[in-house]
Write a structure and sequence with these properties.
single chain; 274 residues; alpha/beta; Cobalt-precorrin-4 Transmethylase, domain 1; Methyltransferase, Cobalt-precorrin-4 Transmethylase, Domain 2; five-stranded parallel beta sheet; five-stranded mixed beta sheet; 11 helices; 18% strand
């Protein structure tokens, strides 16, 4: 009889954020497939769990998947975990899960922490509909291409970003998404958890003066519907761009293009609202 592959969510920071079911499955599994065994041993030791560990970090996931699947076919149960959060969600594990499904192996989810959901709930931005993009391309041109493709998206946007690229990414977002509301979360559930809220430029300004460490979750509001955006909101965005050094014509052009408005009409309104 085949065994089972359990997708087990683990804490994203605070070790108390693990379910009773996850602990039971980790204790009962024949083997634990871990992204990084050194990292996972700390979690298991914290809860007094001792199990054989198989690493599937990076490129080894492709080769180790076959070995893990052999164990499951022989009747063993395997608990799949990543360093933090849910395996397969911007983390290793997707290859193994896909192959298990293809080979008709029973796959069971043991849900738990997810950085993207935690950050969204803290953001104060719309939660009804959202898109999770994960990590953006590291190259500037490719990153800007993806952001431009998302610039007309009305749903809330969620991204992950590494500390060494966070400032560059936010600068790209500031140019492309202009003055949208945003939230930046870091060290979620940890001692130094912090969430910055405001316009992208406001968050960028604060971050440039702060210590940059840990992985970040960026939440950006979707493009606001033209009919639901008041004239006052639009004029405030023009004013904000002008305060940052743009001329009136350039600021009006950017906002008009973003909302599909007449540049001439918007320019006249901005003059009247001075």
């Amino acid at each position: 009889m085949k065994g089972t592959l359990y997708i087990v969510s683990t804490p994203i920071g605070n070790l108390e954020d693990i379910t009773l079911r996850a602990l039971r499955v980790l204790k009962e599994a024949d083997v634990v497939a871990a992204e990084d065994t050194r990292h996972s041993r700390k979690l298991l030791a914290h809860y007094g769990i001792s199990k054989p560990l198989i690493s599937y970090w990076g490129q080894t996931e492709k080769t180790k998947s076959a070995h893990i699947l052999e164990r499951i076919h022989s009747g063993q149960s395997v608990a799949l975990i990543s360093d933090a959060g849910t395996p397969g969600i911007s983390d290793p594990g997707a290859i193994l899960i896909k192959k298990a499904v293809e080979e008709n192996i029973k796959v069971v989810s043991i849900p738990g922490p997810s950085a993207l959901i935690a950050a969204l709930s803290l953001s104060g931005l719309p939660t009804e509909e959202f898109i999770f993009r994960g990590f953006l391309p590291p190259r500037k041109s490719q990153r800007q291409k993806v952001l431009n493709e998302l610039s007309l998206e009305s749903r809330t946007l969620i991204f992950y970003e590494a500390p060494h690229r966070i400032l560059e990414t936010l600068k790209d977002m500031e140019k492309i998404f202009i003055e949208r509301r945003a939230a930046l979360a870091k060290e979620i559930t940890k001692i130094y958890e912090e969430v910055l809220r405001g316009s992208i430029s406001e968050i960028l300004s604060r971050l440039e003066k702060a210590a940059i460490a840990g992985e970040y979750v960026i939440i950006i509001e979707g493009k606001r519907d033209r009919e639901r955006t008041t004239s006052n909101d639009i004029l405030l965005e023009i004013s904000s761009l002008m305060k940052k050094g743009l001329g009136r014509k350039e600021a009006v052009k950017k906002i008009a293009e973003a909302y599909g408005l007449s540049k001439k009409e918007l320019y006249n309104k901005s003059l009247a609202g001075k």
